[in-house]
Amino acid sequence: MRTRFDLQFAFAVVVIALFLVAGVFGGWIAPYDPAQQDLTQTLKPPAWHPDGSLAHLLGTSPLGQDVLSGLLAGARVSLLVALCAVGLSGAFGVVVGLIAGYVGGWLDAVLMRLADIQISIPFILLAIALIGALGPSLANVILVIAITNWVAYAKLVRTETARLRQRDFVRFARVCGTPWPVIFVRHLLPNVMNSVVVLVTLDIGKVIIFESGLSFLGLGVQPPTPSWGGMLADGRKYINIAYWTSLFPGIAIFLVVLCVNFAGNWLRVRTDPKAAP
Length: 277
Fold this sequence. Notes:
The chain is mostly helical. Helices cover 72% and strands 0% of the residues. The protein has one domain (2-271): MetI-like (MetI-like fold), CATH 1.10.3720.10. The protein starts with a helix and ends in a 6-residue tail after the last helix.
């Protein structure tokens, strides 16, 4: 079981590494400009089809755009959204959790009730409302996901901090008059970071799905910037005659999210000996 678990992690590392390479260097690797339209090359099949061509290995879109180039450019968008949204929501949630868990009392109750209110609002409804007010764009997608995704970090860190504040090293620091920002940075934050890192790893896949879903609905990244969700939306009308327009973006989303979850689960087990694979 352990060997199989490690093999899953090795496979996940390879796929994530390819995703990172595509996200960082996709603009140089892509054989074509992903936004370039060529109406003489619309819905060309992949290279292995009888009518396919090596000029477009994965075929073309309804507007004649190269699917492979779109996938590479879409990886950059997904990577940017995932890192920025998780970074913002994680940082805010960690700060809220530290304050709530350390101070306790009425402040803890208020912050956690705000978190409960946030959880009770469906993500898609809140996203539609915010993007309707702000307008669809890459920056607004990142902002919306960050706003709706901080609660898990806050609740996790609040629970860990409430437990840690009763430990002798924290009590000793308080008795010595150590300022609370120093206690947060030196004593509490290092002890909650393992849990936070695991949550970040598991959260990246969810954020990629959020971004793809918003782009699919037309609320996310707008053309001509390519995104995996936008490619799915563009190809859904042609799924019966040109499956490749939706299949390859769907496979890309599936593989990346699956492998990020594999990596996060492996990390969770490695940091918690009591957890079994």
